[in-house]
Design brief:
- The protein has about 375 residues and is of the alpha/beta class.
- It has three domains: about 180 residues, Rossmann fold (3-Layer(aba) Sandwich), CATH 3.40.50.300; about 80 residues, Orthogonal Bundle (DNA polymerase, domain 1); about 60 residues, Ubiquitin-like (UB roll) (Roll).
- It is about 40% helix and about 20% strand.
- It contains 13 helices and 14 strands.
- Helix 1 runs parallel beside helix 7 and helix 3 packs antiparallel against helix 4.
């Protein structure tokens, strides 16, 4: 799964990228906006359930779920005090699965006061304009396919044109495309367009260090705005998160304890992205490997088996399943089996986040 980081110039999106990747991805001048190359890094999803079983089994390998983050390279220039977006501003993140929109809540180096709500609207307008351009370009191509087609005759091209025109009307009226009623077939037909405004999004407020423990008026208004708009949001100080992320594990733990924080805000954000992507993790655990496997929420046991290996799905018989919370409560998988916590389920059983699985199969 891929997550694109977007935001206006000076919002701190590359600083956040460095925090998320713990400084392991090079982001010097030869990368990023100056070279036209995006910053790309794969990030592990923090999971104490993997940590728990790793302590119990001391496996040869512990594997976490992961997300790929992309920090787009394009810049936003200023023109008469207004943001000027290049035509390629979203090119690096159009094919991602969701967006993280970073918004500045601190005074800029040039003295500009923060205006989070205006910045959110400004970027959302550009997302809509970018999608409108995609639609208009596609309409021009489809129109060529319609030459010679009689009125009233239904073809794939006429059906596509109908959908495109409805979406175009919505955007021109300032309405979200998500509000346009589409059939499952129509939704599938437009999925290849990678519309930005149809992607899941988390808004990240990049706050000053002074507000980490005590949110100011700007942050409180931002929370209220996001709650009313139904926007998932997160707050962090990207600069501090970046500095902390580059410490080793022991130093990081000591720092967090000294300031009374349980975990870095970047971990909370990574898990929030995972959730907004509609993903869950199920666990397999043993001495060879403890691993978190990524699965779509609502998936069945046989689909989980196929995630591990196609042979497991093909030869699926039953699966032994217990949720991590139940296992933790009794102390171990073995104890969970002894106390009848472990269920024996069929292929249609719906897997829940944190389920631990052992699959019985025969090929």
């Amino acid at each position: 799964m891929k997550v694109g980081i977007v935001g206006l110039q000076g919002c701190g999106k590359t600083t956040l990228f460095r925090a998320l990747t713990r400084g392991k991805v090079k982001t010097e001048d030869s990368y990023g906006a100056s070279s036209g190359k995006p910053n790309i890094g794969v990030v592990s999803v923090p999971d104490r359930r993997v940590d728990y079983f790793a302590r119990q089994y001391n496996p040869k390998k512990a594997t976490y779920a992961s997300i790929e983050f992309i920090d787009g390279a394009a810049q936003v220039a200023k023109d008469d005090g207004k943001n000027k977006f290049g035509s390629d501003f979203f090119s690096d993140v159009r094919q991602v699965d969701m967006l993280v929109h970073v918004v500045r809540a601190f005074t800029s180096k040039t003295g500009d006061e923060p205006s989070p709500m205006n910045n959110i609207q400004a970027l959302n307008d550009e997302l809509a304009l970018s999608d409108l351009q995609v639609i208009e370009n596609r309409i021009m191509r489809v129109e060529k396919q319609l030459h010679g087609v009689k009125k009233g005759v239904t073809t794939p091209a006429t059906q596509e044109m109908d959908v495109l025109e409805r979406l175009k009307t919505a955007l021109e009226e300032g309405k979200p495309m998500s509000g346009v009623q589409l059939t499952p077939e129509e939704k599938k037909a437009i999925s290849s367009y990678d519309f930005l405004t149809l992607k899941a999004m988390v808004i990240v407020l990049n706050i000053p260090e002074s507000e980490i423990a005590s949110p100011g008026e700007t942050t409180l208004k931002f929370r209220e705005f996001c709650a009313e708009a139904g926007l998932p949001e997160s707050e962090l100080c990207a600069e501090v998160e970046m500095e902390v992320s580059e410490l080793d594990d022991e130093e990081e733990a000591e720092f967090l304890e000294s300031v009374g924080i349980k975990e870095p805000a970047r971990n909370v954000l990574i898990r929030e992205c995972y959730k907004e992507l509609g993903l869950i993790s199920f666990i397999t655990a043993g001495e060879p490997e403890v691993r978190a496997w990524t699965l779509r929420a609502g998936s069945k046991a046989v689909e989980a088996a196929g995630t591990i290996h196609s042979d497991l799905a093909r030869g699926f018989i039953r699966a032994e399943v217990a949720n991590f919370k139940e296992i933790e409560a009794v102390g171990s998988w073995e104890a969970a089996k002894q106390q009848n916590v472990v269920q024996l389920v069929g292929k249609d059983h719906i897997i829940q986040d944190g389920d631990v699985m052992y699959i019985r199969f025969k090929v």
